[in-house]
C-alpha cells in the first residue's frame, strides 16, 4: 500500500490494511510530537526581541516587561533590568504603567502590584540576582519553597535592579 509516498508492507501473516494503518498512525503521531511544540508556542505582544539587548521575548516570556508611556507608546523588554536601563535612557518620558509577566502564567500584570521573589536557584534574566513577578501569593510561596529566594515587593526589586545597573 502506498500513502503519501511511503510504501507500507505488512509483516508476514498480518493483514496488509491493518499494518498500513498502524504505521500511518505512528508516523502522524511522531510528526505531531515533533511539531507540536512549535504549533503550541504562545504568542506574545510585540516586539519579538528586547529593545535593549535583543533577546527573544517569547523565549523569556516569563520575565518580560512592557513599559507604557503617557503618550500611548510602549517598549517591550526581556526583563526588569532591561526595563530599568530603558527608563534611564529615556528619563524625560513619563511612564504611565509597567507591566511584567507573571512567572507561572506568562500573562502581563501590573509590576507595582505583583509579588516579587528575589534570589533563588533559577538563574535570572540579564541580572546576577534573579527577580521574578507573581500575581498570586500562593504561587510565589510555592516557588520560594521549591527554588529558594525571598518574598518581596516591586520597590525592593526595582531598587536592586537600579543598583545592578549603576
Structure, explained:
This protein is an alpha+beta fold. It folds into two domains: 2-39, no CATH class; 65-164, no CATH class. It is 34% helix and 20% strand. It contains four helices and nine strands, in the order ββαββαββββαβα. The strands form three sheets. A four-stranded antiparallel beta sheet has the order 4-3-5-6, covered by helices on one side. Strands 8-7-9 form a three-stranded antiparallel beta sheet. A hairpin with a 6-residue loop joins strand 5 (95-101) and strand 6. Helix 2 (80-89) crosses helix 4. It starts with a strand and ends with a helix. Residues 1-8 and 28-40 have low confidence and may be disordered.
Count of separate DSSP helical elements: 4
- Helical content band: 25-40%
Q: Mind describing the biggest β-sheet?
A: 4 strands, antiparallel
User: How many domain units?
Assistant: 2
Percentage of residues in DSSP E strands? 15-25%
Structural class: alpha+beta
Low-confidence stretches: 1-8, 28-40
Task: Kindly provide the radius of gyration, computed on alpha-carbon positions and rounded to a whole number of angstroms.
Answer: 23 Å
User: Which descriptor suits the 3D outline?
Assistant: globular
Number of strands: 9
Distinctive features:
4 helices, alpha+beta, three-stranded antiparallel beta sheet, four-stranded antiparallel beta sheet, 9 strands, 2 domains, 166 residues
